[in-house]
Design goal:
Distance between the termini: 27 Å
Largest sheet: none
Number of strands: 0
Number of helices: 10
Structural class: mainly alpha
Helix content: 55-70%
């Protein structure tokens, strides 16, 4: 329900003054994050403790996702079989071990594309890909969009032919809308990822 409200408000751009719209989005996002944090916890009971295998794997992925994306490398690093990691990750995060690793890599790529100025080639190198084309193919397979299309989409640069150039005021509003959209896209993905990270 919170996600539906957030989506509706996000789609309703222009019905409220921009500052009110942004405030509503912030509050609805906070509600969504609170609901996600308590999604698997029955009211009045403590969250189940993930097992040690999953916790070690999760921490290893967080430290090494830029160095390797292979489950076998993590299994060797941690002294487990790939099958043990797969079972632990499925129980702890509801994903296969490979999906878990890929989710973390894609989240970081999206964060860098949405909020940074590095080129796709620089991001490719930063995330440990051999070539920019390998990164582009990896990103495309997992998101359905090229890195540049993703960046342009969250920054609102989808440049349709024949569009009129906006005024200075329109550009200012567009920049704010783009910032909200980029923040929204990464925040939703981060919230999904945060549900599998340890709470401080």
């Amino acid at each position: 329900m919170a996600a539906e409200h957030l989506s509706r408000e996000f789609q309703a751009l222009g019905q409220l003054p921009l500052e009110m719209h942004k405030a509503a989005l912030r509050h609805l996002l906070a509600v969504l994050l609170l609901r996600l944090a308590h999604l698997t916890v029955p009211v009045g009971s403590a969250a189940p403790e993930p097992d040690e295998t999953y916790l070690r794997f999760r921490d290893a992925v967080e430290r090494h996702f830029t160095a390797t994306r292979r489950v076998e490398d993590y299994a060797r690093m941690l002294g487990y079989s790939g099958r043990t990691l797969a079972r632990a990750t499925l129980a702890g995060a509801g994903l296969s071990a490979k999906e878990f690793i890929d989710s973390r890599v894609v989240l970081e790529a999206k964060r860098l594309l949405a909020h940074g100025d590095e080129t796709a080639a620089q991001i490719s190198d930063r995330l440990g890909f051999v070539t920019p084309s390998q990164f582009s193919k990896y990103f495309m397979q997992r998101t359905g969009r090229s890195p540049i299309d993703f960046r342009n989409g969250v920054r609102g640069r989808a440049g349709a032919p024949g569009r009129r150039r906006p005024s200075a005021r329109g550009k200012s509003i567009a920049r704010r809308v783009i910032a909200v959209r980029a923040h929204h896209a990464v925040a939703v993905e981060s919230a999904r990822w945060a549900s599998v990270l340890p709470r401080p």
